[in-house]
Amino acid sequence: MNRPLVAIVDDDPRVLASLEELLESAGYATCSFLSAEALLAHGVEGVEVLITDIGMPGADGFELRDRLRQESPELPMFLITGRHEITDQGRPHGKGGFLRKPFDGDTLLAALQDALGKRQA
Amino acid sequence: MARSAGTSGADGSSPDKPFDISALDAAKVVERITGNAWAADAEGVFTYVTPAALAFFGITLDSLNATPAPDVFGWRRSIHPEDYDAATAAWRRCLETGDHYNVEYRMLRATGVYGWVRSTGQPIRDGEGSILGWYGTVIDADLRPEPGERRAENVDDHLVSQPAQNPLRSMGTVHPHDRPTVEQAAARAFFHGIPQVSSYRQLQADGSYRWVEFRVEPGYGISVDVDPAVARQDEPWTIAASFGETGDAVQGALAIEKLYGGAWAIDATGQFTYATPTAQTSIAMTLEDLNVLLDGKPFLEGGRQGWQRGTHPDDSERAGETLRHALRTGEDWNFEYRVLRANGAFVWHRAAARPTRDEQGRITGWYGTALDIDVYKRTETALRERERQLQQLIDTVPSLIWSTMADGTPTYVSKPFTEATGATLEDITAPDGSASLGVVHPEDRAAARDAFLQSVETGIPYVQRYRQRRADGTYRWTETRAQPLRDEAGAILQWYGVSSDIHDMITTQQALRERERFLWQLVETLPAMIDCAAPDGEPIFRSQQLREFLGYDLEQLDGTGKSRLTGTLDAGVHPDDVAAVKQAYARSLATGEPYARRHRLRRFDGEYRWVETRAAPMRDPDGAIVQWNVICLDIDGEFKAQEKLSQAQDSLARANQAASLAELSASIAHEVNQPLAAVMNYSSACQRWLTAEPPNIERAQKTLERIVQSADSAADVVSRIRALFKRSTDKRDSTALGSVVVEARDLLSEEASRRRIRMDVEGESGLKLVPFDRVQIQQVLVNLMRNGIDATASVPDERILRIHAYRAGDMVKIEVSDRGRGIQFPDKIFEPFFTTKDQGMGMGLAISRSIVESHGGQLWAEKNEPRGARFIFTLPLEMTKTA
User: Fold this and answer.
1) Rounded to an integer, what distance in angstroms lies between the CA atom of residue B757 and that of residue B637?
2) Do B677 and A15 touch (CB under 8 A)?
3) Do B685 and A15 touch (CB under 8 A)?
4) Domain presence at residue B861
5) Could you tell me where the DSSP H helices lie in B692-736?
6) Smallest CA–CA separation between A23 and chain B, in Å?
7) Does the beta-carbon distance from B833 to A82 stay under 8 Å?
8) For residues B335 and B368, what is the distance between their CA atoms, to the nearest angstrom?
9) Which positions in chain B touch A18 (Cβ < 8 Å)?
10) How many angstroms separate the first and last alpha carbons of chain B?
11) What stretches in chain A show pLDDT beneath 70?
């Protein structure tokens, strides 16, 4: 079975591990990165969806999103934040959206499926 | 010629010799002797006055004879008012009785000055004794030994009671008690040649006495009763057997004798043909004595004549020579010489003789007289001596003295004047005779001239300050004062001036004025409002700035019923402030303590502006307050800015607090949310593993384990945060900082050594903080040190953590320096969301900062040199209050 590859970026390894567990349980393949730089170094070849934390040392989630948008405008991206105000003020750009911690896993999975479904369609 | 001329020719002792001569002729004769004469008719109307005399007194014959009013003589204006009545009374009486007229009075000269004169007159009678006319002369009598002592008097007054008798012929009429007085007066007059005035009680016909005043002239006949040496009176030796050709001369002599009491006539060879009887003279000589040729040689041929024995040896030869010269040439003889008195004293006389001529002009004889001028001579000598002394005095006085005539013509400058200014009398006299004021600075000269001319014109004393040139060409400030010298009638005779050097005083005054002006300008232009008040607080001066601010002058406060201070405060100070201001003023005024206060003061336009007023007392050497000096600054701008700033600081502090709290809560939320997010993710995953077909029990179990781990982690976060924020139950104390640092190090020493990191702690001893929460500060220290340890652990060498505490001003600085990789984003590390660590919740420099700030300090990060990071926080030191 060809599982869709989801890239996850979060500087907190505990959160990263829990996301991997969730996505795998839903039948996704994952590749995890502890920083935006690590992801960019690896590249997004084969990646179908990106989930990234916003608050990170080095390049943060916004910066990562902006940079990826240049080369992969169609890549759906989900930004996770602990801050209400950011979700309130920021408008979604392109595909994907904001997720506020703590979020319901089903919600994330539904959003992922939605994004992937649109893409496949 | 050794006759001294007595003055009282009317004593009746010499018989009237009728001679055929008119009053005018007699006057002409007299004029030749004395230089002036007058003639009048029997009524007293003047028919002749020597022209020179008219000019001298500034009168005319017509003016003399005018009758400006009934019973008023035309010559009234020429006689001093004080003397006029006595003179006219005597003149009227003489015109009536034919008595000899002999009066002294002050007579006005053409120059406007009164001078003492003696006026004598004598009637001319016909064969029956009727008066045909009068002739006489006016002699300048201004030769007074003591100016001012003389008063107008009719020297013949004593004759009034007994006109036909010589009142002093016998001492019998003198009251016995007064006789010594009279004798002494006569003796003084005789021996000293000074006229004596005295009084005695005179025996009247009815046997009573009455006081009379008398005057004894030198050489006057009273001496017969006093001095036996001149006892030969009335000896009829004095007329030659024959007058020869000298008849005219004898007549002239008789005319003169009438006026002066003594005269003589000589022939062309010098032989006496007449001499006034010696009854009133002091030297006893017969006519033969006078004429004897002492060395057998005729007088004209150089021989000495008998009269010369009666002259001073030093004068004798010269007297002979000058008379001989006159006899040979016909020139008038005028000579002054000393006459030997019987008592052996020499007395100065002035002799004068004039020739008489026949129709062919040949000299027929000479007549002459000799006036006693001893008093004058001695007075002159004394005056000369006094003048010399005065001159010495003037030249010794270190003042510049000068004098001018009444019209301002310079007449004298003292020696110091010339020495100081280099200017002589000529130098200060202009070509036209006026004062040149050449020593006055050109810029001051016109004013000085105007003032001086004004004084000369009005007689008002002259005072002027000007720069006066010195001999070296420099100018010095001088004050010159001049006063007029006036005669008895008030006419100005001279101006006497003195110039005083006041240069130092003037320059000092100028310097003072300049300084005062400077201070005044300083006060008026200082950008502050200045006020001076009396010791009781009453304002006495306000600077322009203050007057302009208030919009009214100090004087406008007067008359309101309030004191100036109360008036100002009530009118100006803001109603909310006025009570406190008054109280503070009253306190300062009562205690003398300086005053300082900020309050609102009403400006002229009605706006209340904040001012700061400070007042301090000015005290005299005894410490008593003499004045309050007040400065008032308009601080409205600053005050309001300060107010705004303070508000801004308050809101900033509140904002900071809120921001810190927000950051803190965000940090806490983040720290808690992380494990919570993990829990939720794992929960979803677990559910999916269990509901999968087939269920993946193994993964579900693993996921559950992780859920537990994450939940523990969240609980751990919460407990650690709680610990962090646990309010220390201890009160803040003043534990020494050093012990807190050492405790923190001890807490971490095990971990540091395990990770092979050395911790160096150094600090100043005795750093005493204001009371602080030691637990919280310890937590900050532990946090920073643990961060440092984590950073240091990532580098291979120089694994050193340095903790350094030192004083910086009124704060203490605590630095925690590591040599790790340093801070990549020093401006972001205090923000929430920001962590560089793999482990731990990185509790937050934000929390540490919050703690430090709550203690009044600051926390920030810097780059350490040569590498690594340095975290620094400050805490306030406890200031000793002894300062």
Assistant:
1) 58
2) yes
3) no
4) yes
5) 697-725
6) 7
7) yes
8) 11
9) 677-682, 685, 706, 710
10) 115
11) 1, 82-96, 102, 118-121
Spatial contact of B500 and B478, defined as CB atoms under 8 Å apart? yes
Residue linked to tokens 């000299």: B363
CA dihedral B277, B166, B197, B102 (to 10 degrees): -70
Verify whether the Cβ–Cβ distance B686 to A25 is below 8 Å: yes
Q: CATH number for the domain including B482?
A: 3.30.450.20
What token pair was written down for B460? 């008002």
CA B122 to chain centre: 63
- Distant-in-sequence, close-in-space partners of B328: CB < 8 Å, separation ≥ 6: B300
Given the structure tokens 């005729």, which residue do they identify? B298
Q: Which of A13, A34, A105 sits opposite B683 (nearest CB)?
A: A105
Inter-chain residue contact B834 with A105, CB threshold 8 Å: no
Q: Which residues contact B304 (CB under 8 A, 6 or more apart)?
A: B293, B294, B295, B297, B316, B320
| Lowest mean pLDDT across B442-446, B623-627, B744-748, B841-845 | B841-845
Does any domain span residue B7? Answer: no
- Mean pLDDT within B451-463: 92
Question: What letter would DSSP give residue B35?
Answer: S
Contacts of B721 (CB under 8 A, 6+ apart): B668, B671, B843
Rounded to the nearest 5 degrees, what angle is found at the Cα of B110, between the Cα atoms of B105 and B111? 100
- Closest B-chain CA to A13: B838
Number of domains in chain A: 1
For B327-378, the pLDDT digits (tens) are 999 888 888 888 877 667 788 888 888 888 888 888 889 988 777 777 667 7
B675 and A25 within 8 Å at the Cβ level: the answer is no
User: What is the rounded average pLDDT of the residues B621-632?
Assistant: 91
- Contacts of residue B695, defined as CB under 8 A and 6 or more positions apart, other chains included, come to B689
CA-based nearest residue to B482, from B506, B452, B437, B505:
B452
Of B685, B824, B833, the CB nearest to A22: B685
Q: Tell me which H or E stretch contains B19.
A: none
DSSP string, B730-752: SPPB---HHHHHHHHHHHHHHHH
Q: What distance in Å separates the CA atoms of residue B318 and residue B476, rounded to the nearest whole number?
A: 55
Domain range spanning residue B880? Answer: 727-883
**A109–B833 CB contact, under 8 Å:** no
Number of domains in chain B: 4
Which residues of chain B lie closer than 8 angstroms to A80, CB-CB?
Answer: 677
Neighbouring CB atoms inside 10 A of B278's CB total 22
Q: Tell me what the mean pLDDT of segment B133-157 comes to.
A: 52
The whole-angstrom distance between A43's CA and the closest CA on chain B is 23
Nearest residue in A to B668, CA atom: A82
Residues of B with CB under 8 A from a CB of A: 666, 669-670, 673-689, 692, 696, 699, 703, 706, 710, 713, 824-825, 832-836, 838
Nearest CA-CA distance, residue B678 and chain A, Å: 5
The pLDDT tens digits for B576-608 are 999 999 999 999 999 999 999 999 999 999 999
Helix (H, G, I), strand (E, B) or coil at B695: coil
Instruction: Tell me what pLDDT residue B802 has.
Output: 92
Domain containing A63: what range?
5-120
Residue B680 is nearest to which of A14, A55, A104, comparing CB atoms? Answer: A104
C-beta separation of B459 from B475 below 8 A:
no
CATH number at residue A38: 3.40.50.2300
The ipTM is 0.86
